[in-house]
Amino acid sequence: MDDKTVHQHVLDELAYAPMIDAAQIGVTVENGIVTLSGHVRNYAEKGIAERVALRVRGVRAVVERIEVRYPDNPAIGDEALAERCARVLEWDVQIPDDAVTLKVERGCVTLQGCVPHYHQKAAVDQALRRLAGVTDIVNLIAVKPLVQPAEIKDRILAALRRSARDPDTIRVHVDGDKVILDGCVDVWSERELAERAAWSAPGVRAVEDRLTLA
């Protein structure tokens, strides 16, 4: 698919997404790589815009350069924002107590610590992204391996067999706590499914996606 068509499809998909103001987002496409610019009303919209662009057929990657602006909210100091973030993490049952520390600088929240599962690392990001005042999140939380590489591979393959239409086209390699996905898929959603299966395995700290669209 040529870049002009991909560009129009991304614009149309952004306009179709009800939770973002597509008029404030700029889109350029070069060799299937989409660059998003402009500004949004909160940090959560940045993630939505990126996911919307990624699900368009023909998009190879997304470069996100969107700025967060809070037009309707008064400025929130870093100290007050840090207190809000700490409270949200304390209330979230998915996140182990005292597993995560955070630092706030000009609205950018940096997260550190260690958790046993990747979904817990993602839950921290998810819990904070909708807080007013957050302009960016740097998630440096480590995932501590709990199982052996062979068990990680078996769990991922089992998850793919339960969900993928043709799991045999996807190859899984495990190198320590890193998972490498290779092979091909028919649609982008199958690629996302494979990534989710890999990230869901306990002990996985990194996923390298080499899957291509058939």
TrEMBL record:
Single annotated GO MF: transaminase activity
Keyword Transferase: yes
Limits of the BON domain: 2-70, 77-145, 148-214
Keywords tagged on the record: Aminotransferase, Transferase
PANTHER family assigned: BON DOMAIN-CONTAINING PROTEIN
Protein name: Ornithine aminotransferase
Lineage: Bacteria, Pseudomonadati, Pseudomonadota, Alphaproteobacteria, Hyphomicrobiales
